[in-house]
Amino acid sequence: MPIWTFLVIPEITKMPSTFYHYEEQTGMNSIAPYVGASLPAPFEHRDIQEIKVINHIGKDLKILSTLKATNVNTGEVFLEESRLFDVDRQTRSHTSVEKGYFWFPPNTQPQNYFLTFPLSFSHAIFTFQGIDVIDGLETDVFICETKPYEISSAISKFKDIPAESVYTCKIWIEPITGRHVNFELQWETFVNDGQNTHLIEKGDKKTDKKYVSLLVEKAKDEKTIFQVYYAVPIILLISGGIILLFSRTAISKKVENPKLVQNIEDLESLMKKTTYEIVKSSKLISVGQLAANLSHDIRYALQVIAMTAIMLQKRKMESLTERDKADFERIRTYIDKISNQLNDVLDFVKISPLAISDYSIVEIIDSVLERLSVPSGVIINKPEKDLKISCDGIKMESVIMNLLSNALQAVGKKGTITISAQILGDNTVIRISDSGTGIPTKDVKRIFEPLFTTKPHGSGLGLSICKNVIDQHNGNIEIQNNPTTVTIYLPLIRK
């Protein structure tokens, strides 16, 4: 346990050497046309903030934070700012003591913190204000107010004039991980011409709602990892205490009963096995968290690529050749393909609670078929009689979508897919069979294993996700050949 407490846990709380953060913010801003002029009506702006490690030597990270602000109405980039930070990955603080923390630490406490925060570039005391809940996630809320901060050259219109900004901010932190999930900032910028101080900018911004949702989900995933790691020593301590208690009882009574001795040995063996499984599970969870983080980050990048492609296409629409149009279509196709695989990864590593209600099986099937491209030569037979099932509608749709997609790939351009539903005993039984070539016999037993796939470009997670969903419903799913048939058993009464 000391090894776990003093070596393993500190390792996961370090700032990753591959640290990367991306978010978009929206707000209103007003910039004077010249020094001394009144501020005009504010305009809407969208900011892109990117923070990434650019160098890593031992425990020292060199992190670059960049900000790009664009006028939504004109498309003009009115502010670009970047700054390098030297950060100690063990403490998440700046290597320069006077700059305080770079990022909120794990196990954030309801107290004040001194940070030079990369979303605002300036240092300030972040004062604890209270607790708030965002999308079911409990967060600590902090506010800050900076001293005048020099931003000369950041605003293109006043790049040759010394300017200073004063910020106030509000930030929501998930305390176990130290991750922020929402951020608001207000500012005023001034210049001094030697005689007077002039207000040249006043604005505000906050994390875009879409990115708040993404950051909340990411924090929830990471929080689960931290809680598992923190729980391991407690589990080992309890298990060890039970074994020690049994052992001492046996020794103090000088028990020579071979069955009791054997039971103690079995218990010790079980503890060793349990410890191994806990460590193994923790490693798997870490891999899952890494996959989830990578998936989130790649999805951010895909969204940027997709939006850029759409804007370029709109700007150049009149001059696009047929080949250009085909290229843009190819970009969209591959973005959709990668997005689908990323969704598979995220669905697999995160199991969310069920939202149970009563649904029509036929309506679920119809909803799925509306989103699938079915070749004209493929016949799909739906259940002759509709049944109601108690399930999570969204998750059950994803299961049927996955199974029907597999069936369509199996039959190709011509074939038959049959879906049936009936009540057998205490279960609703749904079967999906197809006239495809079938699954190799040697692969049938492994078909629900994570990452196992018989497709050249499959993620190997689709059927694993299906099994996870059906397991959540206390059901069962199995597959047979000749013809290929997937059978789902859902209990009529959920336990």
Which band does the percent of strand residues land in? 25-35%
Mean pLDDT: 79
Share in helix: 25-40%
Structural class: alpha+beta
In DSSP terms (H or I, runs of 4 or more residues), the helix count works out at 8
Number of domains: 3
Spatial separation of the terminal alpha carbons: 37 Å
Unreliable segments of 5+ consecutive residues: 3-9, 242-251, 253-257, 278-287
Number of strands: 19
- What sequence of helices (H) and strands (E) makes up the elements? HEEEEEEEEEEEEHHHEHEEHEEHHEE
The largest sheet, given as strand count, sense and whether it forms a barrel, is: 12 strands, antiparallel
Q: What gyration radius follows from the Cα positions, in whole Å?
A: 29 Å
Based on Cα principal axes, name the global outline.
Answer: elongated
Describe what you observe in this structure:
By secondary structure, the protein is α+β, with helices and mostly antiparallel strands. Helix content is 38%, strand content 33%. It contains 8 helices and 19 strands. The strands form 3 sheets. Strands 1, 2, 3, 4, 5, 6, 7, 8, 9, 10, 11 and 12 form a 12-stranded antiparallel beta sheet that branches. It has a 5-stranded mixed beta sheet with strand order 14-16-17-19-18. It has a two-stranded antiparallel sheet with strand order 13-15. The longest helix is centred in the middle third of the chain and has 58 residues. The N terminus is likely disordered.
